[in-house]
Amino acid sequence: MTSNHNTRSRLAVGLMSAPEVDINFISGFESNGPRHFEAGSLESRLLIEPASADSVFEVGGITIGVGFHWQQRQAQRFAGAVELVPDGDNIVVINHVDVEDYLCSVISSEMNANSPLEFLKAHAVISRSWVLRQIGNRHTEINDTARCGADEIIRWYDREDHTLFDVCADDHCQRYQGVTRVSTPAAVEAVKSTAGLVLTHGGEICDARFSKCCGGATEIFPTCWDNEEHPYLKSFRDILPPQPLPDLTTEKGAAKWILSRPDAFCNTSDKTLLGNVLNNFDRTTTDFYRWEVTATADEFAALILEKSGLDFGEIVDMTPVERGPSGRICRLKITGSRLTKTIGKELEIRRILSPSHLYSSAFIVEKSEKIADNGKKITTFTLRGAGWGHGVGLCQIGAAAMCDAGYGFRQILEHYYPEATIQKAYE
Ligand SMILES: [Zn+2]
Ligand SMILES: [Zn+2]
């Protein structure tokens, strides 16, 4: 155990759930060696603490990438304590691990090791803030919330909390592989040099959101999730020294902004920078600061039907009803020959208008009509947009550009989370 262990937090990470579990206690336990557990013979919780700080145990058959195309099962290794909890016909395997050790693993798994160090340090503080908020925050409620009226479907998606542990080991929370793979030196340095640091506001740890590219202006929380305002998640231009943000909530203001390419930290097509920040970055895609998508009314109708189950008939128009201060639409009125409904919020709009997800909901709608050779009228919609992701909190591409411009992680965090304080959660 490290000498300051008692003042640090220990996290309960859910690794897997199965009727039978094989665990090989490799080293550092009172009795090392393989053990087999079955749900039928496990009557109550069983916590197995290590006898020394360099404990390692291996859990067989963990499914990684659940629901993703890379889903596979493999044995993984972990440090710390293991707990087995009977849960119906299954055993839930939980790893109790020091928060700092957990962060070394997740930063190694989730971030590109070639990212600038100050960028990784900023992310380590965000990740630590996020994970400390999850400790003890176990609910059964589902945070996928909808408000449906006769002419409106407004829903938003937030992460569902777990009931038996703080976080899971999969992409749903943050991908955690324990000590299966050696942590990257860059991740370890980012975590160690920011040890214990979190973002706080009013004595509470911040809900430090981030997305890939704000599009030049950051967004506020209620445009994307519930109506709670957070003083440290503001809308502002992604540039220093500060410049005033025009009113992007009007159609005129949004169009002028989106059809231009205003200076911003994230207004970059530097492929090295983008490749170093975005994992599995497809180097042909650099057009997310400003982008466009075109489809016919029929194509949009088919897509919306597939994604939402709503049959609008022929799509006659798509009209932004409400925009957040970054220009992101949170209520979009879709007028069809059979149905007219207003859809929201940000993610729901992105979800139903694209086979995958639209880059963002900061777009303007252009409608054009032409007569085909067969005399049939063809309506086409072009969506011209800005940014990639919800735009709330830290803008990853902007933060990487700030590193290139010589800013440190504290300046990056102060820029993206104004009014937040960077302080130690523990020594
Ligand atoms: Zn989870
Ligand atoms: Zn940005």
What does this structure look like?
The protein has 427 residues and is α+β, with helices and mostly antiparallel strands. The chain is globular, with a radius of gyration of 24 Å. The longest helix is centred in the N-terminal third of the chain and has 18 residues. Strand 17 and strand 18 form a beta hairpin. The chain is built from 9 helices and 22 strands. Helix 1 crosses helix 2, helix 1 crosses helix 3 and helix 2 crosses helix 9. The strands form 6 sheets. A 5-stranded mixed β-sheet has the order 4-7-8-1-11. Helix content is 21%, strand content 32%. Bound molecules: zinc ion (ZN) (2 copies). The site of one zinc ion (ZN) has 5 residues, from strand 11.
**Helix count?**
9
* Shape designation: globular
Q: What does the average pLDDT come to?
A: 90
The major sheet is characterized as:
5 strands, mixed
Q: What is the rounded Rg?
A: 24 Å
Q: End-to-end distance, in Å? A: 15 Å
Q: Write down how many β-strands occur, each being a DSSP E stretch of 2 or more residues.
A: 22
Uncertain stretches of 5 or more adjacent residues: 1-6
Bound molecule kinds, no repeats: zinc ion
Q: What share of residues are in beta strands?
A: 25-35%
Widest β-sheet, arrangement of strands: 4-7-8-1-11
Topology:
Elements: E1 10-18, E2 20-27, E3 33-38, E4 46-48, E5 56-64, E6 72-78, E7 81-87, E8 90-98, H1 99-110, H2 117-134, E9 144-149, E10 152-157, E11 167-168, H3 185-193, E12 197-201, E13 204-205, E14 210-211, H4 251-258, H5 271-277, E15 290-296, H6 297-308, E16 315-323, E17 329-336, E18 340-344, H7 346-352, E19 363-371, E20 377-386, E21 394-395, H8 396-404, H9 409-416, E22 421-424
Parallel strand pairs: 1-11, 10-18, 14-21
Antiparallel strand pairs: 1-8, 2-3, 2-5, 4-7, 5-6, 7-8, 9-10, 12-13, 12-22, 15-20, 16-17, 17-18, 19-20
The structure holds zinc ion (ZN) (2 copies).
